[in-house]
Amino acid sequence: AAIAIIISTPLNMIYWGGTTGNIWGDAVFAAMGSKGFFASFVDELVV
Known about the structure:
The protein has 47 residues and is an all-alpha fold. It has 3 helices and no strands.
């Protein structure tokens, strides 16, 4: 799981700006004022 996070989080930041692709999940992170990196990291950790 750690290898997937290390590889996919930077790729997600580069190609999709750190969004999770889930409207509800992205809305929660936006409402919290979280940065894209945190959203991407948590998304990869959960999946």
